[in-house]
Amino acid sequence: MPDKLEITNNIRTLRFFANEMTQQALAEKAGVSRQTIIAVEAGKYSPSLELAFRIAEAFGVPITEVFSIIKKGG
Amino acid sequence: MSYQEKKTIISLVTSFMLIAAYCLYAFGKAGMEHLNDLQFWAKTILIFIGIGIVALIIIQIVFHILLAISKAVQQKMRDEAIDDKEFERAFEREIVEDEMDKLIELKANKIGYSIMGLGFAAGLIAIAFGASGVALLNILFLSTWLGSFIEGLMQVRYYRKGIR
User: Fold this and answer.
1) What is the pTM of this model?
2) What's the confidence (pLDDT) of residue A73?
3) Which residues in chain A (1-20) have CB-CB distances under 8 A to chain B?
């Protein structure tokens, strides 16, 4: 059985370095609600590939700088 | 609390009030007098479904209006120079339904439909064991309500705890 994967993110750090971008501003850039950004940032929701790319684009960085994968139990 | 979460809670409260009214009416004096009158129960359920739909629409409209007013007041207190168009855009952003909302709805729907399906099976089993048509109608109606109520509860849970 393949290892369980956990998706982590650096959204909080990236917001800090983007002149303390608000969650609302990021939500607007990514085209989702603030609630969704809060959930993604807290690791409570794994975004679709499309949203992940849109978040990365909002910060102007590659997707791998925003999201990373941790293998669990392996 | 997000707009979608508030909307779901409002629906839950409306739905609970409706079923409480149904139980009080149907299992009170009126229902007991028509225990084997299938037509009476069918009419009662139809009337309550109608009342439920109308009540839900009215309550959602009122909720929407009140939410818009409260947001407008909050925005004005924060920034007096804000114009109507800017506020409209801010409000639209607040009520936007995105991929997470759709996923939560789908997951909750699945649970709701499972409960309705179980209710249907329970109704058939009840009939097989000699229950009346009135019992079948009530089992179907109550399981449909329970399914949609638990669907709402699951939505709120997913909004609070997250969805992976």
Assistant:
1) 0.82
2) 66
3) none
Which structure tokens are listed for A55?
């978040």
SS3 label, residue B56 = helix
Task: Name the residue of chain B whose CA is nearest to A44's CA.
Answer: B162
Question: The dihedral of CA B23, B105, B63, B153: what is its sign?
Answer: positive
Alpha helices in A18-62 (DSSP H): 23-30, 34-41, 49-59
Q: Distance (Å, rounded) from C-alpha B106 to C-alpha B80?
A: 40
A9-55 pLDDT, tens digit per residue, is: 999 999 999 889 999 899 989 989 888 999 999 989 999 999 999 99
Provide the token pair at A14. 């990236």
**Which value does ipTM take for this structure?**
0.82
| A44/B101 touch (CB, cutoff 8 Å), yes or no | no
Length of chain B: 164
> Helix crossing, B133-161 with B3-26: angle to 10°?
160
| Residue A49: burial class (beta carbons within 10 Å; 0-12, 13-18, 19+) | exposed
Nearest to A27 by CA among A51, A61, A60: A51
Report the gap between the CA of A31 and the closest CA in chain B (Å). 8
Is A14:A65 a contact under the CB 8 Å cutoff? yes
The answer to whether residue A36 neighbours chain B at the CB level (below 8 Å) is yes
B98 to chain A: which residues are within 8 Å by CB? 31-33, 36
**What is the phi-psi region of residue A33: left when phi exceeds 0, alpha when psi lies from -120 to 50, beta otherwise?**
beta
